[in-house]
Structures are given as structure tokens and as C-alpha cells.
Amino acid sequence: MAEETTVQEPLSPPQNARREALALVVGVAAWLVPGLGHALLKMWGRALICFFTVGVFVWVGAGMRGNLFTSRGNDAFDSLGYIADLGTGGFYWVARSLETNGPDVSHADGDYGTRFLATAGVFNLLVALHAYEAARGRKA
Amino acid sequence: MTSSTGAISGVSVLVALIAVKLSHLQALMVFALVISVAFGFLGRRQPKERVKYILWTLLLFLLVGVGIGWAMYPFSR
């Protein structure tokens, strides 16, 4: 698997600024589509695994009818849940379209599903940060 | 009328396809397995190191999960 090397030569300021901008694009791409950031860096194995992991968590979470928080939360926990769910990027809307019957947290299944959805989001944010750091030339 | 019936049955099929029914232990195992593989790929570069990391993380996830379950058992009634 061809993946990024770790140690980089010191760059001049314009090159450094360009790399920073590119890293930001990679980070945002990684957030929007899980795995895309690593794919842009030609880290194919990691890209596939990230896409698969977030996809499975979203599928299981939505399949168990977990609660997918919206921006119209009532308290701080709802807002935190919304931020976590938004972490899945484009998969947030995939989960929303999969949950045709809406959430059901009256059973334990729905509660587990809520955790799966939140975990998918937080994991994808971690993946985006990893891709950003790798694009900046940090060890990855 | 026919198209709306078809749409409803399509939605029913979709719901049936994505519906997931897991026990607490099964959910824990799915979570532990998937996240261990992901951490292994993100955290290690060499295949051998990845396998070792995945197995070790999976074992710890399961042990800690079951351990916390048993630790909460006296307070569950």
C-alpha cells in the first residue's frame, strides 16, 4: 500500500502557506465524505477503512432507530449530540434518509443506535484531523 | 394509486433492509471489532503491527466492556 512518508524537508513561506491551504481542503473533504481526505493523499487502505467504519456505524445506528439530533435542540446535551452527529459530514443526511420511521428511543435498541450515530460522527472528526495532519506533513 | 402503493412497498423494503436488531453484547462486539480495525489502520503502518494492534485493542475493548458491565451489576436492582 503506497502511503505518505513522514519526514519532510523545511519549506519556504509560500510553499508552507500552500501546504497549509491544501491541508485545510483535505481536512474539510475528509469531514464531508468519510475517507475522501485519505484518498486525496493516496492512502487508499485508510480511506476505505474510514469510509467503511463510518458507514457501518451510520447504518447500524439508523437501523436501530437511534436519535439523530437536529439544530433545534432543547438543551446543551441536544446541541452536543447535534455536533457529534454532524461530524459524519454527508452521512448525516444519509442517516436522516435511512430513518424513514424516525427515531425510537423508547427501547434500548434506539438508545444504542443513538450512541452508534454519535460515535460515527466523533470518529469521522478524528479521521478528518488525521488527514489534515498527514497533509501538513506530520507523522501519520 | 398503483404508483403510490409501489412507493409505499419500496419504502417498506428499504426499512426492512436497514432494520438492525442487536442485543447489548452483539452491539458491543460489532462496535469493538469495527473500531479496533479502524484504529489499527489509522495508528499503525506495518501490516504485522496493525494485526497485533487490532487484536490487542479488540481484546481490551471486550474486557473493559464486560468488566464495566459486571461492575455495574450490584447496582442494577
Present the secondary structure layout.
The complex is a heterodimer of chains A (140) and B (77).
Chain A: H1 13-32, H2 36-40, H3 44-63, H4 76-86, H5 91-98, H6 108-135
Chain B: H1 2-18, H2 24-43, H3 47-72
Helix pairs in contact in B: 2-3
How is this structure best described in words?
The complex is a heterodimer of chains A (140) and B (77). With 140 residues, chain A is an all-alpha fold. Chain A is built from 6 helices and no strands. In chain A, helix 4 packs across helix 6 (108-135). Chain A starts with 12 loop residues before the first helix and ends in a 5-residue tail after the last helix. Chain B is an all-alpha fold. In chain B, helix 2 (24-43) runs antiparallel to helix 3. Chain B starts with a helix and ends in a 5-residue tail after the last helix. The chains are: A mainly alpha (140), B mainly alpha (77). Chain A binds chain B through residues 3, 45-46, 49-50, 52-53, 56-57, 59-60, 62-64, 98, 100-101, 108-109, 112-113, 116, 119, 123, 126-127, 130, and chain B through 11, 14-15, 18-22, 24, 27, 30-31, 34-35, 37-38, 41-42, 45.
